[in-house]
């Protein structure tokens, strides 16, 4: 039985009141803000078709129709219950992993899961790091990566481990697929025009980025303790470079040696070069 259906969602609203639902390029709702009038009415995964009888082909049509929708917006959406449940599960990021996200305007965040299937599709994933971000640089058609990732995605972590270097991310990905058969990522996905433009430029950049491997917790703790203690450290009474003997001055003397080099003009006078 098909879970997809066309339904009308009625949302009471005052003039100028924000709906609180964010659609993507295909008018699929990807985010619903808590405490807004859209909460409990629209669902993530709903695809908007029209508002108050006005057909919507893009986001401009949608927001223009909402501007004049008060006191009630009658929104026709294409709702797939199964797909909605999957998408809602993806946008629910565990609290311990949500802490690492530095949320930015123009991006949506979700939890992507990649499951390895024996004798199934290939991985088909390429990644690069740019400005301390691991970006998806290649997604091959018909592969595992295509099911949950898109070009330009920023992989914030791999199974809860923050990553800023592509080699570290790749090693974690392969290790976890081999040991667990699946791997998850907290993904930052560009949604706005500016965000997508940045991702496009980042993927096109052919700049060798230095590795940006995050130090282990114990190393960072030791470094932090040393930094705190550094201002209070005293200058040693005796230099570590001293042998205990009386200091001697070392004089460096440059000596010039002349070496004669053979050439094809033996016995002939060479022209002077100005």
Automatic annotation (TrEMBL):
Cite the Pfam families for this sequence.
Answer: PDZ
- UniProt xrefs under PROSITE patterns: PDZ
What InterPro entries does the record point to?
PDZ, PDZ_sf, T15H9.4-like
Note the superkingdom of the native organism. Eukaryota
SUPFAM superfamilies, per the entry = PDZ domain-like
All copies of domain PDZ, residue ranges: 8-81, 111-182
What PANTHER family does UniProt report for this protein, alphabetically?
Answer: PDZ DOMAIN-CONTAINING PROTEIN (PTHR31327:SF7), SPERM MEIOSIS PDZ DOMAIN CONTAINING PROTEINS-RELATED (PTHR31327)
Put simply, this protein is called: PDZ domain-containing protein
Species name for this entry? Caenorhabditis nigoni
Highest classification ranks of the organism: Eukaryota, Metazoa, Ecdysozoa, Nematoda, Chromadorea
């Amino acid at each position: 039985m098909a879970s997809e259906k066309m339904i009308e969602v009625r949302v009471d609203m005052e003039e100028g009141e924000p709906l609180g639902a964010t659609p993507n390029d295909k008018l699929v709702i990807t985010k619903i803000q808590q405490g807004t009038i859209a909460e409990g009415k629209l669902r993530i995964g709903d695809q908007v078709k029209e508002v108050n009888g006005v057909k919507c082909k893009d986001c401009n049509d949608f927001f223009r129709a909402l501007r004049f929708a008060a006191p009630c917006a009658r929104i026709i959406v294409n709702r797939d219950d199964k797909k909605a449940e999957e998408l809602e599960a993806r946008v629910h990021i565990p609290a311990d992993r949500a802490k690492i996200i530095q949320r930015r305007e123009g991006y949506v965040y979700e939890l992507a899961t990649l499951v390895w299937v024996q004798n199934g599709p290939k991985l088909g994933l390429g990644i690069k790091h740019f400005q301390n971000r691991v970006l998806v640089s290649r997604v091959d058609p018909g592969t595992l990566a295509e099911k949950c990732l898109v070009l330009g995605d920023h992989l914030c972590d791999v199974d809860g481990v923050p990553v800023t270097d592509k080699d570290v991310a790749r090693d974690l990905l392969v290790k976890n697929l081999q040991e667990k058969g699946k791997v998850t990522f907290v993904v930052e996905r560009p949604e706005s025009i500016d965000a997508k433009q940045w991702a496009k430029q980042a993927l096109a950049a052919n700049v060798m980025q230095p590795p940006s491997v995050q130090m282990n917790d114990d190393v960072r703790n030791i470094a932090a303790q040393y930094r705190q203690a550094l201002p209070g450290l005293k200058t040693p009474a005796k230099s570590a470079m001293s042998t205990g003997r009386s200091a001697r001055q070392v004089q460096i003397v440059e000596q010039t040696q002349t070496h004669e080099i053979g050439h094809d003009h033996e016995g002939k006078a060479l022209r002077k070069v100005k």
